[in-house]
Amino acid sequence: MNRITVVVPEVISRIAPEIYGHFSEHIGGVFYGGLRVGKDSDIPNIKGFRADAVEMLRKLRPPVLRWPGGCFAETYAWRDGIGDVRPVRKNWWYPHDGRLETNEVGTHEFIDLCEAIGAKPYLAVNVTSATPMDARDWMDYCLSPRGSTTLSLEREKNGRAEPFDIPYWGVGNENWGGGGNMTADFYASEYRRFATVMDNVSRAPKPDGRGVTLIAGGANGTDYAWTRGLSSSLAASGAPAGGMSFHYYTGTKYSCFDMSRDAWNSMIDRAAGIEEAVIRHYAIIRGYGLDRKMPRPLVIDEWGCWYPGGSGPSAGANLFEQQSTVRDAVITALTLNIFNRHADKIMMANVAQICNNLHCMLLIDGGKCVATPSYHVFDMYKEHQGANSLRVLTDCDYGARLSVSASEKDGGRILLTVANLSPETDAEARLDLLGVGGYGVESAYVLCSGDPADCNTAEHPDRVSPRKAEAAAGKPLFFPKASVTAVTLRTE
C-alpha cells in the first residue's frame, strides 16, 4: 500500500504567506469587464470593484497582489493613473485591434483593491521605457510621509494623505522578452542603475518603520544562464536586492478540455518540473553567496497553466482568457505542494492571473462571478500560510502518483494536502506521523469530479467544489483519481 510519512519534528521552514500571492495585469478582462465596474455601476461595488469578487477574494486571505504587469508594466507611465484627468493610451497588449487603456485603474484604485481584499501591494516598475528617476518619483509619491515632499502633497490632493504601504517593488518584468529584449548582462546593468536610485529613496525614514524589498527581474523558466549572469553581477557590485524572480508557465498546444493521456501527462510533467527549477535557481544564487543577503531569494511572480485562447466565457474576446478544469486544480495543488516543501527557498509566488485570464481564480460569466476549481484549492490550502513546513516522505506503489505537503501551526494542528495526479486510478495511502504520540482527524475535504474536464460556469457555478471526505485516524486515506484532498489533524 502507498504510504505517507510526516516527520513532525523536522521543520523545513516557515511557509511565507506570500507564497500564496496573486497577480493582476491590464490585459483582457482582468480589470475592465472583470473586477472593475466603476463606482456608479448598478452592480454592487466597493470603491468601483465588484463586491462579490472582493468578498470571494478576501475569503482566500490573499497576502499580496502584483500590478500593473506583466508586459503592460514596461510601457506604463505611473502618472497616467493619478488625478482627475487621465490620458487614454495604447495598451501594450493591443497595439492593433483598437482596444485602448483608459487608466481608470491607477495607483490609488489598485491600493483600494488591495485594501479591500486584504493583500499587500507589489508594484512592477517600468525599466524598458522609463528612467530611474521615474521609479524614484513613483516611490516618493507612494511612500513619503504626509506633507513631506511635493509629490506627497500631490498624493494628498488626490485623496490619500497618509503614505501607502507598498512593501514590494519589482524592477522590471520579463526583461529577456517583452521587457526590452535584453541580455542578462544588459539587464544586470540596468538593474544596478534603477536599484541604486530606488534604494536611496526606499531607505528614507518612515514614521511606522515599514521597509521596502526590491526584487530583481529573473529568468524565463529554466534559463539558468540568466540567473548566473544576474547573480554574478549582483555579487560583484553589491547592488541592493531582496529577491530574484523567475516565471514558469505550464504551457501546451492542447486545449484545456483535452484530457487525452498525452495532454494530461504533458501538463502534469511540465508542472512538476517547477521543482527542479526552484532547486537549480536557488543553488545558483546560493553559489554566489547571495543567500546571505536574501535568505529566501526566489520570487516566482508568474506561474500557472497557459492554454490556447478562446475557452473562457468571453469566447476569445478577452486575450488569454481560459476555462479552469479539474486538471488545473490538480496542477494548482501540485505546484503549491512543491512551494510548501521548498519554503526555505521561496519568498513569494504569484499565480497568474486573478480574473478572466490565464490560471485565474475568478471568471466573470454572464454578469455572475464564478469561482474556478483553482480558487477552491487556494481556499483549501490557505491554512498553510505562515505555518511550519514539515518533512514529508512518500512511498508509492507502481503507477500511483501522489503529490503531498504538510505544515503545522497552532500547537499541534497539522494540515496535510494531497493531489492524486492520476486521471485514471484511485489511490489509498497509510498515514504515519513520526514524533508524536498519536493524532485525530478534525476535518477532511476533497475536490474532484466525475470528469477531469469538468469546470464551473454561470449555469453550474458549483459543479467542481470541495465536499467533506471520510477520514479517520489509523485508517488508510482515500484519494479519488484526479483529486485534491485537505486533511486537518490534531496531534496528541
Describe this structure in words.
Helices cover 25% and strands 27% of the residues. It has 492 residues and is an alpha/beta fold. It has a 9-stranded mixed β-sheet with strand order 21-20-23-18-17-16-1-19-22. Strands 2-5-8-9-10-11-12-13 form an 8-stranded parallel barrel, surrounded by 6 helices. Strands 3-4 form a two-stranded antiparallel ribbon. Helix 3 runs parallel beside helix 5 (184-202), helix 5 crosses helix 6 and helix 6 packs parallel to helix 8 (274-287).
Distance between the termini: 25 Å
Number of helical stretches of at least 4 residues: 10
Q: Strand sequence of the main sheet, in spatial order? A: 21-20-23-18-17-16-1-19-22
CATH topology of the largest domain: TIM Barrel
**What helical percentage do the residues reach?**
25-40%
State Rg: 22 Å
Please state the oligomeric state of the protein chains shown: single chain
Question: Can you give the mean pLDDT?
Answer: 95
Quick recap:
The protein is of the alpha/beta class.
Set down the secondary structure blueprint.
Elements: E1 2-14, E2 21-23, E3 45-46, E4 49-50, H1 51-59, E5 64-67, E6 89-90, E7 100-101, H2 107-117, E8 120-125, H3 132-143, H4 150-157, E9 168-171, H5 184-202, E10 213-220, H6 224-237, E11 243-251, H7 261-272, H8 274-287, E12 298-306, H9 326-341, E13 346-352, E14 362-365, E15 368-371, H10 373-381, E16 388-395, E17 402-409, E18 413-420, E19 427-434, E20 439-447, E21 467-468, E22 477-479, E23 483-491
Parallel strand pairs: 1-19, 2-5, 2-13, 5-8, 8-9, 9-10, 10-11, 11-12, 12-13
Antiparallel strand pairs: 1-16, 3-4, 6-7, 14-15, 16-17, 17-18, 18-23, 19-22, 20-21, 20-23
Helix pairs in contact: 3-4, 3-5, 5-6, 6-8, 7-9, 9-10
